[in-house]
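Q: Can I see a sequence and its folded structure?
A: Here is a first one.
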Amino acid sequence: MAAVLACGPGAVLSHESAAVLWGIRRSRPGKVQISVPTAGGRRRDGITVHRRRLLTGRDLTHRRGIPVTGIVCTIVDLTSELRINQVERVINEADQLGLIDPETLRRALEDTRRRPGVAKLRALLDRRTFRLTRSELERLFLGIVRRAGLPMPLTRQIVNGFEVDFYWPELGLVVETDGLRYHRTPQQQERGLVRDQIHAGAGLIPLRYSHGQIKFNEEHVPAVLVAGAVRAVSP
């Protein structure tokens, strides 16, 4: 708060300092980072000042009484400075803390002005948060099945009380496509585990893929699928 006040009207905590306040990055030695309107702000020892004319009201908020960039703006700012794996950790932390999930973050970027970090963050999230429609998903997955030389599965069948995405009754094989968040909520994780455990307890082989794997990983999906089929028919 002292750093924000020292930089004059319109100043807000931003970048790494904002991330620490939000709890998505750990505090590290270094200068406090503050963003100010282009025409405002005063330089102070121990403070890095970012002069920015593109920040709007939707980019700003308060946390613990301190003016700070909002969670979306903060993640965008970090993306312009961090490596991809570090950005993924930041998004994961924000998700686990209930601040924002990847799907909501991706939607928020649709209305975010072009600035450093936006394009990079969109590219990262596109592979995680896009959602195939039922028909698209089935078309892509069935193409994988066909190329792998496996028989066609039944789709949207009720098995052990659950609707499953793909089912081979002759192989005892069930395939589900997961939701698209890095870490689903504990309740979602619990439901997915229970489904798999019930299927396994009934003698089936449950497999799970993300939509991203079906769309982008042309080698992993059929390899695991074939291994599951081989296991199903092995004595």
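Q: Show me another, different protein.
A: A second, unrelated one:
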Amino acid sequence: MVTDGEYTAVLDRIEDDVAVLLLEQEGEQVPEVLIPQAKVPSDARHQDAVLTIRLSDEQVVSVDYDANETSRRHEAVQSQFDRLADQPPLDDEMDR
């Protein structure tokens, strides 16, 4: 059960017009929330979109798209991937 308050949410997926949001609070993942796709801003209806949601009486009362945080997280993941891809192979991998 998710308590009332403000959460960072990441759009995991949309299935049958239902958005599955993975919630974070203070850097920790908390239970997911399912909301109608129509409540998600149209520019945020893509995987890994970062949102700020507010809950009251166990209901979602607002959903705001954070385009800057979405871009920041995407760039951080891409940078990490690029660093891993640029690493030279291990000695035993070169012998194969």
